[in-house]
Every structure is written in C-alpha cells, then in structure tokens.
Amino acid sequence: MNKMAADNIELGDVVASRHGDHVTPGHSIARMREEGGALAPIDCERKRLIHREESVRQQSDAFRGIRTRLLEMAGENNFVTLVVAVSPRSGGSFVARNLATAFAFDESKTSLLIDCNLRYPNQHKAFGVEPQTGGLIDFLEHPSRGIASIMYPTGVPRLRLIPSGRSRENSSEYFSSFRMRAVLDSLRCRYSDRYLFLDGPPVKGSPDARILSDLADFVVLVAGYGRDTPASISQAVANFDPAKLAGVVFNQSP
To answer: Whole-model pTM?
Structure first.
C-alpha cells in the first residue's frame, strides 16, 4: 500500500501516515485577495480549520506535509486531487477542506474545493456558506447560469467552494458525463495557480469514488483511525489506479 511516510504523527484530529483562455496567476490571486471577511483564528478552530497560529501548528504541519507530497508528485503543473474516505464518518470531508486550506496558505496558489458527495454534502455547512445561487449539480443541469455563480468565498484567503447543489440519489450519471469532465478541465486550465480538490463520497457503499478518480490526477484516501481495518483499507485502495494514489491519511475524528 502506498503511504505518505513511514512514521505516524499524532495530530489531535489527524494521524497522518505520510507516503510517499489562460489567465496569469497574478490576476486570479489578486482578485481573491480583494475578498474581505477573512476568518479569525478562533473562528477557524470553531470550524475545525487549520490556520497559521501556533495553537494548531501540529495539525497545519501535517497538512503541509501532504501538500508537499502532492506537489512532488505533480512537478510544475497544477492538478485535481480526489479526497475520499474508506467508510462513512472516517473524516474525508474534514481532510479535504483542510488540505485545500493548506494549499491556500501559499500566497502563490489558489484552491477550489468542490463538494462531490451528493448524498451527504456538508462542506457548505462546515464553512457557514449559504449556497443561494446553487451548486455543482445546478450548474451541470443549467450551464447557462455560469460557473462563477456557484463559486463562494469561504473566509479563507485564496480558497473558494463549489457546494454540491441540490441533493441527488443517482450521482454517477453526473460524474461520468462529458460536461463534468469539461468543467474540471476548464476550472484547472483557466488559472495555472489553481489547485482543485474533490470531496468525494466514501468508497464503501458507492461507486462514485471510483468514477471520480477517473477525473482526478491524484487520490488521497482517508481511513478512520481505529475504525477502518487493514483489510478494509486494502480493499478500498484496490479501487484506484496505483499511479494516482498519493497515500493514506489516518484521521482520528469524523
């Protein structure tokens, strides 16, 4: 199994097993810097988000470590990363938003987090975002509304969120569509400094994680510490192309 490092690091909320039309970057970063309302550290902690202060240094360093691993794998190109849990309540969404936040720490980069867990979406709730103009599924069904209408500020500088939109039971048809692939290609190619993170549903009980992995450059698998067995982790790993698997993150809380 591909891992993100040989040693396990206690992180409070996370135990990380570390393994191993184009617009200029400055333009997109400048626009995102203009957005006000940055979250204070105490608000970040309330939302279970990492920040730059000393109080969460261990957690922040863990996610920076994962960021470093992904950047080493990608070279100079930006990329799409799928984050999925082995099973429900293993903390995949927690890891996805904090990994996206870690990339946004770098002032030369921007992050876009896309909630692809259509049955149980929660990223908009975690960030306190009210998706008044819809989300991903609304756009896929009605692209004339424009992609900018479903990209929301999060309170984290240089990080935006695309919520899932209206809940759907049959999500596979959306993720396997040409339009979904075209949307991701457009979002990545428009700004070379933009890094995309897909928060996918758990591997167990849904084919969507495997389908989404076809759209991603890398996959980060999240295992619940003390929840998911070695056998279930190995079974989940088998769903993905080994060349795309960046590693496994062991998370201590949902």
So the answer is: 0.86
